[in-house]
Amino acid sequence: MEFLVSCFLCLLLFMCVYVLVQVCSSITSTRSRASSSKLPPGPRRIPILGNLLDLGDKPHKSLAELAKTHGPIMSLKLGNLFSVVISSAAMAREILQTNDLIFSNRTIVDAIRARQHHELGMPWIPVSPLWRNLRKQPSLEDSPTIFKAGADVEVCGFTVPNDAQLLINIWAIHRDPSIGEMPNCFMPGRFLGSAIDVKGRDFELIPFGAGGRICPGLPLA
C-alpha cells in the first residue's frame, strides 16, 4: 500500500513540475515574440491549452466568429502550436500568392516525423524538384491542407513567425457578406454572369485552393 502511495505522489509531483515548465515556457515564448515583433491579434489564451477551448465542435464557424472581433488575420495558440488564421480574400491573396513560397511547406506532426515520412512522402517534403515530380503521381486520398511558415515574414503589418501553423478558413472567405448577398443561402444563380475566376486567380472563391499547393486535378474539373 505504501508503495502505491509513493508511486502516486511521484506521479503527481512529476505532473505538477511538467505543467509548471510548460506554463513558464509558454509565457517566455509569448513575451519574446511580442517584444521582437508585432504578432497578429487574437483571443486571450489559457496556460497549456491555449485557445483550444475556443474552437468548439465546429471550428470553422468558431474561427469565423473570432475573426469578426480580431480581424481577418489573427493568431491562436493550439496547445503548443502557434497558429495564424486567415479569414478574408485579401489576406488569402497575401499568403497564397504574394508569399507563396514561404507558406508552401506543410505542418509535420510527430507521428509522421517519427517514421521519416517528412523526408520521403510527397505531401510532407519541402517544395523542391523532387516534390514537383512526386505530386504528379496518383494518390489514394487527399493530402492534409495545413501549412506552416518557412521563415519570419511580414503580412500586412503583422509578423508571422517561422514554423507558425497556417489555417486558411475558406468557409469564412466564401461566406463574406461583402462579396455577395445572403452568402449562407444556396443560390447557384449568383455565379451566372459573374467574372470571378475559380482557378485560383480570384481569392473570393477558391474551391481548388491557390498558389503552389493548388489542387493538381483542377484541369479535370
Written overview of the protein:
The protein is globular. The chain is built from seven helices and six strands, in the order H-H-E-E-H-H-H-H-E-E-E-E-H. The protein is α+β, with helices and mostly antiparallel strands. The protein has helices spanning 2-36, 59-70, 89-98, 110-114, 117-120, 129-134, 170-174; strands spanning 73-78, 81-86, 147-148, 153-155, 158-160, 165-168. The protein folds into two domains: 40-107 and 144-179 and 190-216, Uridine Diphospho-n-acetylenolpyruvylglucosamine Reductase, domain 2 (2-Layer Sandwich), CATH 3.30.43; 109-143, no CATH class. Strand 1 (73-78) and strand 2 form a beta hairpin. The strands form two sheets. Strands 1-2-6-3 form a four-stranded mixed beta sheet. It has a two-stranded antiparallel sheet with strand order 4-5.
